Structures are given as C-alpha cells and as structure tokens.
Amino acid sequence: MRWENGTIQWGPRLRKVTVRRLYTFYMAGFGFEDLLDDVGTALYIRCSDILYLRDARERGWRCLPCESRSDAVGPGPRMETTGRRDPHFPNYENELFACPACGWEFSWGAMRNTFRNKQLHSGGAVDAFEGFVKSWPAVVGDVHAKMRAVDMLIHSFHYSLRSEPDLPVRAAGVNLIEGRLKDVLAFLDALSADRHDETADQWRKERRKQRW
Question: Are 76 and 35 in a shared domain?
Fold first, then answer.
C-alpha cells in the first residue's frame, strides 16, 4: 500500500505469466534471482496490505498520510469519528473519520471503494499471510528459502473459521494472483502437476478435501 498524491494504492495481484516465468527459470537453475526478489517483494506488499485491512476492521483505521511521512517512525495514529456525515454515501457508509494529528479525514464508504472487489480480505488464510510477512525479510541471501516461501504462500488455503477448522474452503492464491478462482486453481494445479516435493504434495492433499 502506498499513499501517493492524496490517493491510496494497494499492492496489485501478480500476473500468471510472471509467476510461470519464475518457476520456469528456477527449474532451469539460472536467471531467476532478480525475478524472485521482485515476486517476493510484491507478495510481501500484497500480504501486508491484506493484514493492514484486517487490523483496520478489528482495531480501527490508522492515518495513512502520517505513517507515510519520510520522518515517520511507526504506524500512524488511529482515526477518530467526527460525528459528521459524508453526503455522497448512504446510511452507515457516510460516517466521517479524522486523524487527531493531521486532520486527514475520510468516510467509510469512500475508503471501502479503494479496496472493493480487489481480493484483499484475509478470511481464513491469516496464518499464511502473516507467516510470509514474517519470514520474507529473514531469508535474504538464500534463494532456495525465498522460493520455498513464495511456493508455500501461493499454494496456501483459506480454512473454515467455524465448525471445521481443518477444512480448506478457498485457495489463498486468488488473493495473490490475477484471475477468477477457477482459473487460479487450474494455474496452481499446473504448477504442482509434475512435482513431488512437500508443498506440491500438500497442495494436492488439501485440494482433495475441498467440497467446491
């Protein structure tokens, strides 16, 4: 997520062709290092954005202009409700929030429009997203550890948050790779089709559990 000229830019999903190229080059054993760094960094930003929105929903929004300043040393202050309304949005969507430090404000409706339909919901894959954000900075210099981290993340799942916590209900790859769910599933199936490593075996095992 970037704050640029008064607008929010959320990290985009990866293109399938980029991910496929990374796997092709990695299997060939050359020419993949820079691409791996680019893909991993993009996934790090994407996962961080997903977790940012989860934190905002659970604990309240942080001020983006404040935490984007060059001299910022941590997260921005939490936004506070103003008691005023945005006339452009109906009902609860029109409530305005403002930063107690800089005065920046937005309505819930306007903020929601910045990430609506962009597959940025954490759902039941929080552990996968958090795990990658924690592990990626720690694997600097080890290209194979980096590739394993990327591979595990894009082949992870959302799990049921209710009665069956071990039930995979949705591929987390749709949050990370462009395309509809069925297209992303077919793409990930193809990536793991001829492999017999731990990640590929786990992917096939969890796919067999799915009810959709």
Answer: no
